[in-house]
Amino acid sequence: MNAPHKDIDKIIPFGEFLRGFINQRYITATDIARILRERGIFVFNQDKDYMVPIMQNLLLSPAEFDKVRDSFSEKEDNEKKFSREITWAKNAKIFDPELLFVSLDEVMRTKLPTCKLRKPVSFVQLDNNPNHIIASFELERHDMNKSWYEQTNLFHGSIEFINDNGKGHVRITHTAPETKDLAEEILNIQVKRYKQKGTIPLEVTPKKILFSEFTNETRFIFFYRLTTHLQNDIFSCENIKDISIKPEEDYVLPEGISWMNRMKKILISGDSLDKTFFMSEKSYHSSLVLWNIEAVFSFDYKGEKGTITICLGFPDYNKKMHNAEFEITIRSLNIKNRLTSKAKKTLESKLLSEMDKQKSLVYSNFIEYLNNQKK
To answer: Which end of the chain has less neighbouring CB within 10 Å, N or C?
Structure first.
């Protein structure tokens, strides 16, 4: 998220400095129109394209600029989650007082030189559960190449170690490439330390869910199980609204989808896309590469109800291809009850974790299904 400039209380920008600031998406046309109206300036066309040039030619009072700053305020970036399976030694105790603090001075100096940690990273029990520990962290990034109001950004992340009756998971939450990289470093450090104490067997490596694990056909099955075939009390899939798909290279496509031959990537938006012919017709699946789905779910979680749009898939597929790792992200959240921004953000994070749990369950069952198919 953008953090206020360190001298924001000492300056009142004008001209080009003000134009860039108020052109940000966080500051709406309504915000600008209100300030102009209080100045006695009424604009018939209330688009930002018309109002920003007027505003930038004014010298704002401190009180007026404070109103603009309130609209800008700090805005959180969307959380993304992915998890990996891990095997613990028998009777493992993952809450170990000797392994709670993580020293990251060398990592920050060599791997993330433009960032600094806002506070030390240390693991704590989640909900007083010694088999579920979490370390949260916040990075402050400085980029002098950006505009004055964008030079400092704050990003948060976390990493969890879970031992669920012998089934092990590592869950990583990140909001930027830097927090993802830092979580990976923490994971490597902690796994190494756990191995030294015998908590994790030496031969164990946290297992990723990679694009390459699936054939074109089984990837369709996996996505269907994660959306329209979920079996739980929290989520119910209402609609698949976006898919990312392309024809397999060097394949002769079936006649029904031969029109895709010259297309390298197809992004399709709409309603009930799972019922379209190229999704529902199994004979097409071996010829199609599917790597991303956006679906709308209704939810009922601890008294809160509403709808949530979740992106499921391999977001780095275009860069990493078969090494892309599975992630989930919330695109939007609509709640029936009115909540504060903080409460809404907490609920969003909880729902994302619950969906990650469903993903782990579906994946475990799916691997069992694939193994049975080979017999």
So the answer is: C
